[in-house]
Amino acid sequence: MQRLVDGVINDEIFLSIPPITNFEVVKVNGDDHLVLQDQLAEETPVALIYNGISHAVMLASPQDLEDFALGFSLSEGILMDKSELYGVDVQVQSNGIELHCEIASQRMVELKNHRRMLVGKTGCGLCGTESLAQAMHKPPKLKSKVLFKQTAVLAALKAMPLAQKLQHKTGATHACAWVGLDGNLVIVREDVGRHNALDKLIGAIGKLEARCDGFIITSSRASYEMVQKTATADVSMLVAISAPTALAVRTAKQCGLTLLGFARNNSYVIYSHPEHLN
Predict the structure, then answer these.
(1) What are 48-74's pLDDT values in tens digits?
(2) 122, containing H or E segment
(3) How far apart are CA 70 and CA 85, in angstroms?
(4) Which fold has domain 150-276?
(5) Neighbours of 52 (CB within 10 A)
(6) Whole-angstrom Cα distance, residue 56 to residue 54?
(7) pLDDT of 133-169, one tens digit each?
(8) Which sequence spans correspond to the domains of the chain?
(9) Cα-trace Rg, the chain
(10) Which of 70, 97, 257, 259 has a 20 to 30 Å separation from 226 between CA atoms?
(11) With contact defined as beta carbons under 8 Å apart, do 69 and 88 qualify?
């Protein structure tokens, strides 16, 4: 049984399931055929197991998994506070990775009750939930009065590509970054899935001793889930490189989150609460 320390996977786990694997490929350019080594991002089944009971299996990049366990637990409402996660043990199996999370007994009771309501339900086809109402988690109303500066957004956008190390090597991953009010990137997390990258970032932010004010940048589009997870983490601005969905914008307006989309180079579109940006 292996343990993650400060969000870093030990060497033995990296040797078992590295985040990048080399493959021999043939690059074709007109009549030229060139044999090359290509670096591909791994996606690995990661099982989240709470107090011995399996809850979910996600396909994720096999790194920063302690951050992932905490961030997923917080953003999905399994935990209300980081102190309710007592420990994460990582077990590498032949077919993936298991994250064994030890959580507070009250949270486990609530999780079991929720799971009990799902037993025997068929045909919902929506994330394993019992109903449409249950699938739509309404994020809390944000109370932050922080004003964000355009210069900080533009500085972060400029720095973001250089911070995406997995993306540089593979071209197949998303990134989410925690950005200070000065526009400096504080934490960056990457994953093959945009939701996983955000969960990893939320987990990393949650472990900070003292969290400064700031905002989140994502290299993806802004879906409803990205807005919901950001607001649940009590972050009041989300900047997306690509477009938001209509549901994401409506949700951002309702919960008080400033949502920026098509944020590239020196431009972006403000979709909600422009009063928080100057």
Answers:
(1) 999 999 999 999 999 999 999 999 999
(2) none
(3) 7
(4) Cytidine Deaminase; domain 2 (3.40.140)
(5) 9
(6) 6
(7) 555 677 889 988 899 999 999 999 999 999 999 999 9
(8) 2-135, 150-276
(9) 20
(10) 97
(11) yes
SS3 content of the chain, % helix, strand, coil (to 5): 35, 35, 30
Query: Residue 205: CA atoms inside 13 Å, Cβ hemisphere, count?
Result: 32
- pLDDT at residue 47 tops 50: yes
Q: Which helix (H) or strand (E) holds 264?
A: strand 258-264
3-state secondary structure of 223: coil
Amino acid at 203: G
DSSP 8-state assignment for residue 95: T
Active-site residue identified among 101, 124, 212, 255: 124
- Range in 15-29, 195-209, 240-254 the model is least confident about: 15-29
| 176 belongs to the catalytic site | no
Pick the CATH number of 2-135 from 3.30.559.70, 1.25.40.10, 3.30.365.10, 3.10.20.10: 3.10.20.10
Contact 89, 124 (CB under 8 A): no
State the Cα–Cα distance between residues 223 and 229, nearest whole angstrom: 10
